[in-house]
Design a protein that fits this description.
The protein is α/β, with parallel strands linked by helices and 375 residues long. It is built from 11 helices and 14 strands. It has helices at residues 14-24, 57-61, 115-127, 155-164, 177-189, 208-216, 232-244, 274-280, 289-293, 305-315, 345-374, and strands at 2-5, 29-37, 42-50, 66-70, 91-93, 96-98, 104-108, 132-134, 169-173, 195-200, 222-225, 250-254, 285-287, 320-324. Helix 10 (305-315) runs parallel beside helix 11 (345-374). The longest helix has 30 residues, at 345-374. The radius of gyration is 22 Å and the shape is globular. The protein binds phosphoenolpyruvate (PEP) and manganese (II) ion. Manganese (II) ion binds at residues 110, 291, 324, 334-335.
Length: 375
């Protein structure tokens, strides 16, 4: 059960405190509090965990300060969409809005290699009017002898270059809590020239201790990748771990499933699940065509499989695209074979825009139908 307080009855007011004490006095009930800052108001919510069946919903709704009580109908208490749920969803980070209506492309380096390539990339992105990118500093690799990423040493110059070219959010993978501390420290030391969205990779989707640590801080939002060998439900529960620890600023990323049924792609493209995640949860949904497709193969129509997969995700309503680009893919230290080239950058953005227009047209058509059916 979720008890939503009136916008003017935060948890610090007498009314808010009275609601909390009412719930705390019920046996078998544990209330947990959350505050969510939306576009135009801050909502205070109390998550009621335990024997909620015995609670009187109407009585709670009649308490001063209570706007609404939502009975949680699914497993995903915080991230889930529940019947009658009017909560603000999404978040704004470093001036960029992320929700189920927005669309942002995070094109960039799979792995940070050298300042020249990072600067070239950032400059190209700025020329395309982009404010987001991806930059891997900590790389989880299958082979222990493969390049593991530059780690903390590259953070100051990556952040400064990002600031120089107007990049507001960098998606950056972390595999350990110490990485989160290093990123926060480097942002502070460099005067916050940019922002970081912490990425939890597919190999760590069920690293529960990492999820708890990342969920306990709310300064940086989180991009959680779907686990490549587990069910969607298990991956969504991983997102719930983050949210239950207090960090609600989460984006859920589909990145393909590991199975040879996906061959010759690197993974089986799972972007048919974009609408599924959007109706099960409030989370904005990201697609990662690079790690799903894994090649630059071009079909007989002259369009790469990677662009086709991207368009499939965007036309289904994806809110974010994470894609590998490299100024010279043949020199990339990680994942060069799937990285798009600089001369493809403007084409890629145009292709995304074409797919987005098609999604918007589909949305308008659906609204016409649904309005006619309702009246
Ligand atoms: C990545 O995005 O660089 C990455 C390693 O992705 P994944 O965790 O999906 O394999
Ligand atoms: Mn990669």
């Amino acid at each position: 059960m979720i008890v939503i307080l009136h916008p003017d009855s935060s948890l610090d007011t007498d009314e808010g405190k009275a609601v909390l004490s009412y719930l705390s006095n019920k046996s078998g009930i544990t209330p947990r509090t959350h505050s969510i800052t939306g576009t135009d108001r801050t909502l205070s919510e109390i998550y009621v965990i335990g024997d909620v069946g015995a609670l009187d919903q109407a009585e709670i709704e009649s308490l001063p300060g209570v706007e609404k009580v939502v009975r949680v109908s699914r497993e995903y208490r915080v991230i889930g969409r529940h019947a009658g749920d009017v909560r603000d969803a999404g978040f704004t980070y470093n001036g960029v809005r992320f929700d189920q209506h927005s669309l942002h492309v995070f094109a960039g380096l799979c792995a940070v290699d050298n300042p020249t390539n990072v600067e070239t990339m950032m400059k190209l992105l700025q020329e395309q009017g982009q404010v987001c990118t991806r930059m891997g500093a900590y790389k989880p690799r299958t082979n222990p002898y493969s390049f593991q990423g530059h780690g903390a040493t590259c953070l100051p110059w990556v952040f400064e270059l990002a600031g120089k070219y107007g990049i507001r959010v960098i998606a950056m993978e972390v595999t350990h809590d110490s990485h989160v501390q290093e990123i926060r420290q480097a942002l502070k030391d460099t005067g916050h020239p940019t922002g970081v969205m912490l990425q939890i990779g597919t190999r760590n989707t069920q690293n529960f201790e990492l999820l708890k640590e990342v969920g306990r801080q709310s300064e940086l939002p989180v991009l959680l990748k779907r686990g490549f060998g587990i069910t969607l439900d298990e991956s969504l529960n991983a997102a719930e771990y983050l949210a239950s620890e207090g960090n609600r600023n989460i984006i859920f990323c589909l990145r393909g499933m590991k199975t040879n049924m996906g061959d010759p792609h690197r993974n089986l493209v799972d972007f048919g699940h974009v609408p599924v995640v959007r109706h099960l949860t409030h989370l904005p949904v990201c697609i990662d065509p690079s790690h799903s497709v894994g090649t630059r193969n071009v079909g007989p129509d002259g369009i790469s499989d990677l662009m086709h997969a991207t368009a499939q995700g965007v036309i289904a309503g994806a809110n974010m695209v994470l894609v590998d680009f490299h100024p010279r893919p043949e020199e990339a230290l990680v994942d060069g074979p799937q990285a798009l080239r600089p001369d493809e950058l403007s084409w890629f953005f145009e292709d995304v825009a074409i797919a987005r227009r098609a999604y918007e047209a589909r949305l308008a058509r659906a609204q016409t139908h649904n309005t006619a059916t309702e009246s």
